[in-house]
Structure formats: structure tokens, C-alpha cells
């Protein structure tokens, strides 16, 4: 059985003070609410603070992006080994905001997936269609293309070392969640696509849902057979909301 995972993606939010308050709230409540694996993905500059506050707690942490390079003259980049040096367990790869605002191609995303694994991190690979793509009926083609780029560059066994997050772009930060059926359909499609290369990997890989998941809709989404948790934006910024989403992930 796949252990559910709930990961917070703080995006570019927070201050040292708000991070401290949020983490203290999470640490105080987490043992009571969930058997799921729980993580927060913080802006790079706060990762040292996150590490010192979460060390010894059951909550893991990670980054939101990683360089394809290991070290060197790449101004502004952060390397996988640096994230590992600060105790990161996860790193988000290919979030739609990076694909849209930073021009990240499927190929670059695949290279980042490899770079994360090489540094001993668990990549959370984001895939998902825009509203226009959904309305033109090409959701499955888009998700297949995004997945296939990583499968062909890294190999199916490496995909098995990561996590996949289905995040329909039209549901991100909009308050418009995919219905449990819409999400389940795409999650089942993703698992089927993986199964074409390896049934064992398809069975084992966790596929998270992301896009306006909150305490009200989390339980119904996570009750779907192919939804193994969530990647949470807005609702991960308040301890009570995030803990409520984590408790919905209990199996
Ligand atoms: P929201 O939960 O704010 O819609 O963001 C989802 C997301 O992009 C997580 O990576």
C-alpha cells in the first residue's frame, strides 16, 4: 500500500517570523492528526530555519526547484547537493509556475529530475494541463508528453524513485478544484501510462493532486483510489488548514 504524502508548497511566501510561527503550529499538531508522510517545500532562503526547527520532528522538508548543475558559475541557481546539505528530503520539479514564467521545457524538467536524484533528493514531478488544453480535449496528450519526457530521459526505474503531482493549471490558486472524478480520471491515466513501462513502478509511485486543495475538499479527493495525497499551496500557509488537510490523508 502506498503511504499518502501531503506536501506544502509555500511558493514565494513568508518571512522568518511567519515561518517560525507556522512550523511551531505544525509541530505541535502533527502527531495527533495523521499517519501520512508530511513535508513542507520552502523558499531557499528559509530552508536553514526550517531545518533547525523541524530537525527531530516527523515533518520533512524540501526545496521548490533545483539546478541541473552540481556546482559552478551559475549565478542565482541552487544545486541539489546544497539542498541535501540542509537536510532536504524532497524537491518540487517542473511546477507549472516554473514552466510558464521561467520557460522550463519538458527536457529541462527531465534534467532537473535527474539532478535531484543524483543529489539523493526525492523529486516531486508536477504535470498538468492549462484550461485551454482541457477545453480542447488534450489533457491526456499534455500529461503524457510531460511524463514521457522524464520517462525517456531518466528511465522508468528512476521515475519509481520520485513522486508525481497532477496539478491542473486552471485549479491552481483559483479556488476552482478539479472534481474528485476529474482528478481520479487523470490520476488513473498517469498510472496507466507508467504501467506501460512497468507495472511495479505504476503500483508503487505516489500520485498527488494539487490545485486549490483545502480542508473542505481534501477528504473527498484523497478518497479516490489513485490519489495518494496532495501538493498544497495556499492552504499550506496556515497551520490549522494544513493540519486539517493532513488529517484528511489518514488511511
Ligand atoms: P493552491 O493550493 O494554492 O491552488 O496551489 C497548488 C499548487 O500549485 C501546489 O504546488
What's the short version?
By secondary structure, this protein is of the alpha/beta class.
List keywords for this structure.
251 residues, alpha/beta, TIM Barrel, 12 helices, binds 1,3-dihydroxyacetonephosphate
Architecture overview:
There is one protein chain. The chain contains 12 helices and 8 strands. The chain is α/β, with parallel strands linked by helices and 251 residues long. The longest helix has 18 residues, at 16-33. It has a single domain (5-248), classed as TIM Barrel (Alpha-Beta Barrel), CATH 3.20.20.70. Helix 5 (106-118) packs across helix 7 (139-154) and helix 7 packs parallel to helix 9. Strands 1-2-3-4-5-6-7-8 form an 8-stranded parallel β-barrel, surrounded by 5 helices. The radius of gyration is 17 Å and the shape is globular. 1,3-dihydroxyacetonephosphate binds next to strand 8.
What is the residue-averaged pLDDT?
Answer: 97
The count of domains is 1
The distinct ligands, each listed once, are: 1,3-dihydroxyacetonephosphate
The value of Rg in angstroms is 17 Å
Count, helices? 12
Structural class: alpha/beta
End-to-end Cα distance, whole Å, is: 10 Å
> What order do the strands of the largest sheet run in, or round the barrel if closed?
1-2-3-4-5-6-7-8
CATH superfamily: Aldolase class I
Class in CATH? Alpha Beta
Shape: globular
Number of strands: 8
CATH-level-2 architecture = Alpha-Beta Barrel
Biggest sheet architecture: 8 strands, parallel, barrel
**Helical content band:** 40-55%
Q: What oligomeric assembly is this protein in?
A: single chain
Unreliable runs: none
Strand content: 5-15%
| SSE topology string | EHEHEHEHHEHHHEHHEHEH
Say what the CATH topology is. TIM Barrel
